[in-house]
Structure formats: structure tokens, C-alpha cells
Amino acid sequence: MKITEIQIKNFGKLHNINIRPLPGINVIYGENETGKSTLQQFISAMLFGVEKQQGMPGKHDSYQQYEPWDGNSYYAGGLKFTVAGKPFFLERNFYHKEKSAKLVNEGDLEELSVEQGDLEMLLGGMKKETYENTFCIRQESVETKKELSDILQNYFVNASLGGEGEIDVAGARKQLRERQKQAEQKYQQKLAERKEAEEKLLLAERLLKRDAEQLKKQKKDGFRALLPNEQEEMMLYEHDTNQMAEYLRDIRQQKEQREYHLKFALSFFLMAVGIFAGIWNGMEHLALVPAAGWIVLEAVLSCLVLAGVAGVFFWHRKSKQLKLLRKQQEEEAKEVMQYNSMEREQQKHTQQQKQQASKQAVEDLLQIQISEKQAELINLQEEVEECRVPSEEEQEYERQMRAYELAGRLLEQLSQEAYQDIREQMEQEMSRILSELTNGKYHKIGLDAQMELVATAGKRRLRPWQLSQGTMEQMYLALRMGAGRFFTREESMPIMLDEVFAAFDEKRLEGALQWLGRQNGQIFLFTCRKREIEILERKGIPFGNIMLSK
After folding, report:
1. How many angstroms separate the CA atoms of 481 and 491, rounded?
2. Beta pairing, strands 100-105 & 86-93
3. What is the DSSP string of 471-488?
4. For domain 1-126+488-550, which architecture applies?
5. Environment class of 482 (CB within 10 Å of its CB; exposed 0-12, middle 13-18, buried 19+)
6. Cα separations (Å) of 429 from 135, 332, 450, 452, 476?
7. Which residues pair with 19 in a beta bridge?
8. pLDDT of the chain along its 550 residues, tens only?
């Protein structure tokens, strides 16, 4: 396929532009912001279309990015090209409300259908993803995207089986991974739910064990630990009461004794005073004639003596009565204490019976509660054991997960075996290109099981990131070109290189341009530097020069 004319009506900043490229190398030169990348995007949009994203546009929304800057809704262009020497004209309107595509064979004026796949047939079955991972290299990076690995694997498998791309190995692998992931998520969800339920049951089990142990301890400690000790309180009360009665009785006796001793002493004193005074008065007036006053005095003194004698006699008798009364009181007190003691013993016995009955009732209640807790504990332990066994649903998700994993490994193994021969052929082509680009420094390049690049330098196997930026880009360029040729064996596609050689030094750039000059296909080289033009002119490599200006 060779592009013969590019007609840009409105696309981004470009409008009303016609370009007639040459069959070989075409250098599109211009400073930054002159529309080089826009021109590349236009060619890609003409070949594969451009779709408007639904919802809010993102940074990779090409439709919005390259809408006409002047606001013109006429978002369109045309492309003339040849395939197998036959001329075709493709016209597109990109405006999403008026989107259309018209394809005409200019040789016989037959109108073909883009919607029915006629354009894809002319492109050799090349899809946009494949094209952008092989022959179309944008200025962001020469590195391929992850999707190239899937594209290559699909191609290798279908080619080895003689198909035309019907088998989507990468898609099958992707679906297996997605289903395995879904099964694993559901399995992990069920596993987490079961673990959570088990933790709750174990917590409940620990609480039940604690409650059962507390009930057993209460039963072991006895009734005293559960109810107040009424007997002990009663005995303590009676002891305090008896002590208080004895204390009051002692005080009362001491008071009566003090009163008796005082009154007895007073009576004895009066008697003694009367006797002493009578004796003294008689001795004083013994020789004298008794006078009336003396007689009266003697009479008074005699009365005192009589009163004292009578008092002594009275209080002595009173003392005997008090002793007798005290003895009677003590005997009565003993009888009362004995009666109280018998009463207390009866009450004690009655209280003990009540306590025993209450204790037995409480023990029975505690035993019932303990039995209930033990029964609950047994049931709970059974639930824990049941919970530790995966459910049928969980087991099913686990089986699905393992099955998808096994299917993925088998698919990988079979695909590896299927495309081994064809992969070796592509690696040979890639190695030849890399050797030419590096002047034989790196003569072999290959792909590992994950379709990742590996270069060989002597006995060393090197990854692209282990090399310089320029060498790494040479490796990816060889990968793209080598892979692209396997997708376009009958009809080549235009090669578009947008600022691909920015990291190349003079020697690398010269080798790359010489290699491009030896290719039969059409090449579009977008650059803002004049190095490429100077080298092409110096080496005498034919090229077309297309100048873009602001």
C-alpha cells in the first residue's frame, strides 16, 4: 500500500491542505507546533477511523483532541492510495453526528463498503492496534505497548494452525484470568465470611466457658457467698445484747452498793457521835447537879444514838434483803438466759433449715444454669467445627479458581508449542534488522515466554532497560519492523516515524536512514531537525521533502 495524495479539509489545526508523498522516504519537516503529529494522526484516522468517547472526554480522546480548531463542524478529509497497483479513494467525515466513510476503486469506479470490511481487506487485515504497535511509531516512545504481545501470540498461533486470525489466544487468556480473578474474589469473600463467623463463634464459646466457670465457682463457694449470713448476724447481735445487759446490771449493783455504804456509814456516824457526846457530857457534869439543859442534851444525844443504832440495824437488814433480791435476780436472769438460749437454739435450727433449703434451691438453680451453659457450649463447639468446613459454594469457587488457573497454564503451554517455529522466523528477521541498525554489534534479538525483548551480545543476554536509550530504541525499532513484516507479507503498510530518532547519535541515525533507504515500502519521517535531511542528501538516498509551517 502506498499513499498517493493526502487531502485535509479540517482536522485539528490543519485545513485545506493537499500533500502528494513519494513512494519511498518522505521527510515531513517543521518546527514544533506546525502540525506534524496532527498529520500523522490524520493518516491513521483515515485508515482506521476515529471514535468519539462516551461521557466526559479523557486525555487520550483523539476525536476531541483533533476537532477543527476553527470550530467548523466539517470535520473531514480524503486519502488516495494504491494497493497492488490499483488506485483507491477514501473519503471520511469524522463529525460524530454526520459520520460517514466512502471508498471508491478509481480504476473501475466501483464503490466499496467500509462498513462491510472492504477497507480492512485492502489493508491486509491490519487493525489499528496492530498498526500502532508496528509501523506507526509516535513521538512519545518507540517502545511497544503490552498489547503487541497479545497480537503476536494470536498471529503466531493462527499462522501455525493455518488460520486467518480466528483464534484469539490473548482474548482467551484474558477471559481465563478475569474468570479466575472473579472466582478467586468470590472464594476469598466466602472464606472471609466463614472466618468471620468462626471468630464470632469462638468469642461466644469463650464467653460461655467464662460464665460456666463463674457458676461452678459460685456453687463451690456455697450459699454464704450468695446470701447474707443471718445466723452470724443474729449471734453477733445477741452477744452484744447480753454484754449490754450485764454492763447495765453491774452499774445498777454498784450504784446500790454505794448508796447502802453511804447510808450505813451515816447511821454509824450518828450513833458514834451520840455515844461519844453522851460520855463526854456525863463526865463534865458528873459532880454537878443536873440542870434542865443538860438533861435535854442528853435526851437528844440518846435519840441520836438510838437513831444511829436503828439506822445501822435497818441498813444491815436492807443489805441482806438486797443480797437476797440480787440472788433472786441472778437466778431469774439465768432462767431467762436459759430460756433465751433455748429460743435461740430453736431459731438457729429453724434458720439453718431455711438456709439449707435456700442453699439447696440455689445450688439446684446453679446446677441447672451450669447444665444449660454446658449444653450451649457443646452445641457451639459443634457449630465451630461445622464452620471450619468449607461450604459447597466455597469449594465450588475454589475448584473454579484452580480449573481456570490450570486452563491458563495449558493454554500458555499449547500456544508456546504452536507458534514456536513461526516465532523463530520472526526473531531471525528482527535480528537481521537489529544487526544492520547496530552495524553488527547486536546480532541477535529474541522474545521470551512473556513476549519481552531479549538481546544477545556475545554470551550475555540483555534486557532493553539494561542498555542505553539509543540502543534500546534500536531494539524496539527492530521488533516493530520485524513483527510488522509478518502481518503484511503480501502488501506493505506505510511506515510512519514521528521523532523516533531523537535519542540517536549521528552514527545510529546514519545506520537507521541507510536501512530505511533499502526498504521497498513507503516511509513518512516526521522531524523538527535537519539532521535527517542532511544525512539523506549526503548519502544520496532519494526522499521527498514536505515542509510544514505555522
Report:
1. 14
2. antiparallel
3. HHHHHHHHHHHHHHHHH-
4. 3-Layer(aba) Sandwich (3.40)
5. buried
6. 15, 135, 19, 16, 13
7. 6
8. 999 999 999 998 898 999 999 999 999 999 888 889 899 999 999 999 988 877 665 556 788 888 888 766 688 999 999 998 899 999 999 988 888 999 999 999 999 999 998 998 898 888 888 888 888 887 665 565 555 666 666 666 665 555 555 566 667 777 888 888 998 999 899 889 889 988 988 888 888 888 888 888 877 776 454 444 555 555 555 555 556 556 656 666 666 666 656 665 666 666 666 666 666 655 665 544 455 666 666 666 667 667 666 666 766 676 677 777 777 777 777 777 777 778 778 877 787 787 777 777 777 787 888 888 888 888 888 888 888 888 888 889 889 889 988 888 887 776 666 666 677 777 888 888 888 888 777 778 877 766 677 777 667 777 777 878 888 888 888 888 887 877 776 678 899 999 888 888 888 899 899 999 998 889 999 999 899 999 999 999 999 999 988 7
Whose cell is 478529509? That residue is: 77
- Output phi, psi for 241, to 5 deg: -65, -45
C-alpha cell, 542 = 532519494
Using CA atoms of 417, 423, 425, 430 in order, give the dihedral in degrees to the nearest 10.
-160
Is 215 exposed, middle or buried, given 0-12, 13-18 or 19+ CB atoms closer than 10 A?
buried
Q: Residue 452: how many CB atoms within 10 A of its CB?
A: 13
495, β-bridge pairs = 523
The amino acid that residue 172 corresponds to is: A
Residue 447's DSSP bridge partners are 453
Secondary structure of 369-413 in HEC code, one letter for each residue = HHHHHHHHHHHHHHHHHHHCCCCHHHHHHHHHHHHHHHHHHHHHH
Answer whether 363's CB lies under 8 Å from 220's CB.
no
Going from N- to C-terminal start, the domains of the chain cover 1-126+488-550, 168-221+388-418, 232-386
At residue 176's C-alpha, the angle toward residues 170 and 179, to 5°, is 140
Cell digits of residue 128? 489499528
AA identity, residue 45: A
Concatenated DSSP letters of 482-505: HHHHHH-SSSPPPEEEESTTTT--
Rounded to 10 degrees, the C-alpha dihedral 245/251/255/257 comes to 90
Q: Residue 97's closest CA among 52, 38, 42, 47?
A: 52
The number of beta carbons lying within 10 Å of the beta carbon of residue 547 is 9
Which residues on neighbouring strands pair with residue 102, listed in sequence order?
A: 91
Check if the beta carbon of residue 27 is closer than 8 Å to that of residue 527. yes
Report the distance separating Cα 294 and Cα 82, nearest Å.
187
> How many residues make up the chain in this entry?
550
Q: 506-517 vs 531-539: helix axis angle to the nearest 10?
A: 60
pTM: 0.58
Q: Cell numbers at residue 274, please?
A: 451520840
Amino acid identity at 357? A
**Residue 90: strand pairing partners:** 79, 103
Of the candidates 169, 32, 47, which has an alpha carbon nearest to the alpha carbon of residue 103?
47
